Amino acid sequence: MQPNNPFTWASGWKSPIYCDNRITLSHPTIRTYIRQQLTQLVQEVFGAVGCIAGVATAGIPQGVLVAQELGLPFIYVRSKPKDHGRGNLIEGDILTGKRVVVIEDLISTGKSSLQAVEALREAGYDVAGLAAIFSYGFDVAADNFKQANCPFVTLSNYNALIKYASDNQYIPANDIELLRQWRQNPSEWGQ
Hints:
The protein is an alpha/beta fold. The protein is about 40% helix and about 20% strand. It has a six-stranded mixed beta sheet.
């Protein structure tokens, strides 16, 4: 947490907190736990699927782990088509018509996740929905996913993170209110 030196997101938003799920990949016990929990979530919420798709870049390793656990094919979706080679937007064997679940590490507004969903739909995939490790729980994300008719589920969210951090004294009590204020209006915070 850095309220006096906020992080800048790709969207340009300023944030006193940054959730970096890539770090979990360096820790086998945590990585295994996340893989197992995402796999269980995919099975419980979406049922039988024929393929797992990761969103470049942070959704790729998580998606590979889930696909491996389920014994399913894996593909991933780039943010834009490759500018060389075959110019692919979707990498892997094209398995159109397959029912696919998209795996993402984190959802803020949902923009990049839903771009991947749209690319898969345009390529002929039946997108069952999206599963992610974490969501900031922004209303804009819920609205975007609803508008795109794409259900999504996450293992954790901002409120749970802040509660855990507060209960375990990872965050000073006087910073909790700042984090609540940021969460209410992240696009304007820090400007």
